[in-house]
């Protein structure tokens, strides 16, 4: 990989990276600020997409147009797999939009009509790098799995059950599958790495706020470890 794109949805998710990067150029595009620079002797560009699928999609396309040849997304998510604890890491094997719903026309939930793929695979090499980083940094407190994205902050047990049992999601967030789809449309490898800020249940909002600081630290350490070995 010769130019690495990195995306976080919130400022906390990329601020440590900003602090440790030799920023050589700042670019404003589509309302997003991108920082270009050197990190572990690699060329990187990173930016804060903002929350939700449209923000993530636009940010991803702009990064690709700026010449990145892979994209890492880092941030927090709500756990769906009951074995996950707050603080654990999830690495995407694939990403699917759980709010894509054309069931009245006979399409299964999550399926984007009239196209071959709706569950977008992450890149095996990037998954492997993320797995090695998580193994080393978090004593194996990580899981690989399908990440479900939608323009919804999930905060109920029923929705968790549905997303876990019906769609097979490991965790839920609001950007990954949009980024994944744009990457697939452009033939660019990606991986999404999330630390669990909450269990997407009734206490999600409380855990979410408490955990954001710790999660930013996780995000930075994983990215740091991955890029140092690229
Ligand atoms: N990001 C972090 N927690 C989340 C949740 N419960 N739902 C959606 N996105 C999230």
From TrEMBL:
Pathway: Amino-acid biosynthesis; L-methionine biosynthesis via salvage pathway; S-methyl-5-thio-alpha-D-ribose 1-phosphate from S-methyl-5'-thioadenosine (hydrolase route): step 1/2. The keyword Transferase does not apply. CDD domains: MTAN. GO terms for cellular component: cytosol. GO terms for molecular function: adenosylhomocysteine nucleosidase activity; methylthioadenosine nucleosidase activity. Keywords: Amino-acid biosynthesis, Hydrolase, Methionine biosynthesis. Its EC number is 3.2.2.9. It is an enzyme of class 3 (hydrolase). This is adenosylhomocysteine nucleosidase. It comes from Paenibacillus abyssi.
